[in-house]
Design brief:
This protein is α/β, with parallel strands linked by helices and 305 residues long. The chain contains 14 helices and eight strands. Helix 10 packs across helix 13. The structure holds nicotinamide-adenine-dinucleotide. This is Crotonase.
Length: 305
């Protein structure tokens, strides 16, 4: 199969990672379509009841634009390279791009439903990838065509995308060598990332090890009644990493995403003697239930700000 040089991309999901990926691409001079679903938050109740809001594509796109904040953007020219749109109104955009990267929530059903839409509209040369933290590739590709499977790869970026220098690539069983080569070259030469190869095992390398470490610390904190601030002071400031201490990192990742990633280990590593470490502590589940999912919401372990 032939891939083309990546000049135009579509990013699906404009949350923490999708916004960061879109900004990084635009800063590298790549044209980007950034797609999401229109947020129906309680505050927008009036809009939901307004037929114009429901029916007009322009209004839906405007609502999305208000929600989306690609960051950091270097110049106005870079920002102009990003076009934001509601996913279901703009599925034809997939036919125009050389790479489609999915960054929707870490949920198998949502990922699979997204790929249904991609497959129905993608052209015959685009590379298709997922930014999943560690869901099974075989699971995500269930029911997909041979052509789709050949062009599929996991491109796992790290948060914040602009500053984290690593890209974890994971091939599926049918990924074509040209697709791997194209992604290595693009990731390294255009996006400035170092590349590491993971395997299609639960949470690949980064999150299988990284989440284990963070979960261990959370359980020990609870067991020994340490304070969140105390743990973060020791593992953050004292180690010269004031912004990346354990609980601050969890807030930056998004507690809902963190819970999904930990749960993926808990649900799939059924024979693993360390499985219990991935059991999400009650205090974290409670924050998620209250909508306190971290920096992207009103706050999480820390207040927003
Ligand atoms: P997020 O919750 O911040 O954003 C997800 C976005 O997807 C939201 O804006 C949501 O409105 C949108 N969305 C939901 N359903 C959709 C649909 N059907 N179609 C289009 N858009 C839809 O999540 P995130 O943190 O950006 O994570 C996205 C992916 O990246 C996940 O797979 C996650 O595991 C992975 N990831 C996250 C991090 C991190 O630090 N947050 C790091 C690496 C990888």
């Amino acid at each position: 199969m032939a891939t083309k040089r990546i000049r135009k991309a579509a990013v699906i999901g404009s949350g923490v990672m999708g916004s960061g990926i879109a900004a990084h691409l635009a800063n590298a001079g790549i044209e980007v379509y950034l797609l999401d679903i229109v947020p129906f938050n309680p505050g927008e109740k009036d809009d939901i009841n307004d037929p114009a809001f429901r029916n007009s594509i322009a209004t839906r796109n405007k609502a999305l634009l208000a929600k989306t904040s690609p960051s950091p953007i270097f110049t106005k020219r870079d920002l102009d390279l990003i076009t934001v749109g509601n996913m279901d109104d703009n599925l034809d955009w997939f036919a125009e791009v050389d790479w489609i990267v999915e960054a929707v929530p870490e949920s198998m059903p949502i990922k699979k439903a997204t790929f249904d839409k991609v497959e129905a509209h993608v052209n015959d040369h685009a590379i298709i990838s997922s930014n999943t933290s560690g869901l099974s590739i075989e699971g995500m590709l269930e029911g997909r065509s041979e052509s789709f499977k050949k062009r599929f790869i996991v491109t796992h970026f790290f948060n914040p995308v602009r500053y984290m220098k690593l890209l974890e690539l994971v091939e599926g069983p049918d990924t074509a060598p040209e697709v791997v080569d194209a992604m290595v070259e693009f990731g390294r030469d255009v996006l400035g990332k170092g590349i590491v190869f993971g395997k299609d095992t639960t949470n690949f390398i980064a999150n299988r090890i990284g989440v284990h470490g963070m979960m261990t610390i959370m359980h020990l904190m609870k067991k020994y009644e340490m304070s969140i601030e105390g743990v973060d002071t020791v593992f953050g400031k004292a180690m010269g990493r004031p912004k990346s201490a354990v609980f601050r990192t969890a807030d930056m990742v998004g507690l809902d995403t963190f819970v999904h990633v930990a749960k993926n280990c808990y649900d799939t590593l059924t024979e693993d003697e360390e499985r219990e470490i991935f059991q999400v502590p009650d205090f974290m589940g409670t924050l998620v239930e209250k909508g306190l999912t971290g920096q992207k919401a009103g706050g999480g372990f820390y207040k927003k700000g």
